[in-house]
From TrEMBL:
Residues 1-26 form the signal peptide. This is Iron complex outermembrane receptor protein. Keywords: Cell outer membrane, Ion transport, Iron, Iron transport, Membrane, Receptor, Signal, TonB box, Transmembrane, Transmembrane beta strand, Transport. The keyword Iron applies.
Amino acid sequence: MVRLSMRGALVLSASLGPLLMMPVRAAAQTAPAQPGSVTLAPLTVEARQWKEDEQDLPASVSVLRGDTLGTPLWDSLAAVAKVTPNVQIEQSTVQSRVVIRGMTAANTALQDPVGYFVNDVALPHGASQAPRLFDTASMEVLKGPQGTLYGRNTEAGAIKVITGEPSRTLRAQAEASVGFRDGATGWSPTTVASGQVSGPVTGDVAASLAVRGETTDGVHRNRWDGSSTGGDLDRWTLSGGVSAFVGDDTEVTLKSVVERGEQGKQRMRYITGAFTTPRYETNYNTESWDRTLTAVQSAKVVHQAGDLELTSVTGWTHYSRDFLMDLDGWSVQALRNTLSHTDDAVSQELRLATADPQARVRWLGGLYTFREWTDLEFTTGTAATRRTTTIDQTGAAAFGQVEIGLTDRLRAGLGSRVEWLGQDGHQTYATATGRTTFDGSRDSVTLLPRASLSFDVTDSSLLYGSYARGYLPGGYNYGSAGTAEGFTYDAESSWTAEVGLKNRFWEDRLNTRLALFHTTTRDKQIFDLVPGGTQRVSNAARAEIYGMEASAEARLDGNWSVFASGGWQHAEATEYRAMVQQGAALVSTDLSGRTLPMAASVTYGLGVRYDAEAGWFGQASLNGSGPFYFDSLNVARQGASLLADAEIGYRFAGVDVALWGSNLFDENVYSRAAATPVGIIAEDGDGRELGLRIKAYW
């Protein structure tokens, strides 16, 4: 780990930031603040790949603006659960994922049912591959199947992140934040520093550059050797962009986001059984670390041709991960696990759409293709047990949608996507007794239709309904296959129906949203134990999920605003039989009726903000969840929780100073938990953290 040099760099960058920005002081401006309006600002979304008012969208979507995401209380994936109900977040040292409406992938699978897009480019490994929320202009959280327009890996929804657009006027900002986390070693420091500059290069060209660095000692203590480095984190993120106008009707935008991280991996502890230790206290006898690199490059061209708009998006993503970890999370003399993982993908999308948002008939058509290469080397327990896997995937799709105004108030939408996916996987499985190879190739064609109907009850009230097919491709069991049959598994699909009501009240000062949904899955991917200590992924379960969710946002006056959300869902495996360890034997067990993992029945959020433009500002929020299980056997359980965050600050001329605190009640919410033969092992989530941030604008 490079704690000392990283921390020194952060402190130096925070100190020199204002000096480095001095050449642009001539263009100084006050901190961007919302005008003292008493109406809610309109929300323009691109969930359907065209710009429209969120009020007119016949679907559930939540939007987070860049000014909100730029604070310590909102700059991680956890922000998603604050504003949209029926969502759970995992940010552990094993994986990161967003669970929407109770839909998850097979544990540690390479693919996830919630698609993640950065600057219109799909991340093949979803949230696990996503960079930190930094230099973000907006985030859209789309609920329900999105395969019609976004293709594979969007069975439960999609998250679209757009980084900052290059500005046509010169502007800059620098920020430093110091926080202290409460843990096993007392209060441990966390330091974050960032800087951004954006402005014109020539008359038709603008550019932006942003950098962020983060370092923390962590809050864990390892009993085996007394070390406190198991929760360390060092992370750098770089975001940049160039935008150019080519003539009067074409804009070209190039964007790049690169992030490198290194963290300690001694964070799991037993919470039941003979090996139980207190919160944040672990007992590893093996060094454990995790290093990642992610990069997302995009080239977007938008050309206006009369009443039509042609869009081209070219993408390249790179992801690499290497880790070393203790196999048992305890001090017994067990051997270690290692992983070396690289993934590269290139993609190209073309879209042609009507440009007039008021057109009675609005349509869009497009083509998409991608190529992805994945290499993994995974050892389990001993270097003599090694799985070396290569996966090559190629895909192509044609898609389209049309929305027709049947009357002045009634609109019908219909869309579909035909997607071909070719997969070729190869694994060499080597043990002390020999070597075996597994091969699996498959071609599939999937149809992903969607239909919607929306009716303007009044000028400020929309009633809608939709029905769509979701899809999660099949894949390869890279980490635990013991046979050729167990190396591959098939795709899963689902159908989701949703009805909703959107309202604007109180002279556009209050927005309310209500949705009811029902999802059925017939071939859900699940892990199943097989004799010999290995696992396979089978399409053996059927599931049903239904529920409701509501949200509201209100502007009380020019300074005060409030938001609230709540959701209820029932997520059940209606048909589920699996092999379960009972003593020394594996027994086929009927698990029908079990709750799906990470599907709390109740979730809710409540928040208030105050901003006087100049002078005082602040915010406070509560985010609650009912109990849920981490596993399909319903053994590892998280109890009900309530997280409280708050910030209070003062805005001077071009400078913000704020005190903030997260998880003020110090709730113990596990990031991850799993059942083992000797007890439940879990990773503690972030505890209470208090901090100070200073942000300067030019």
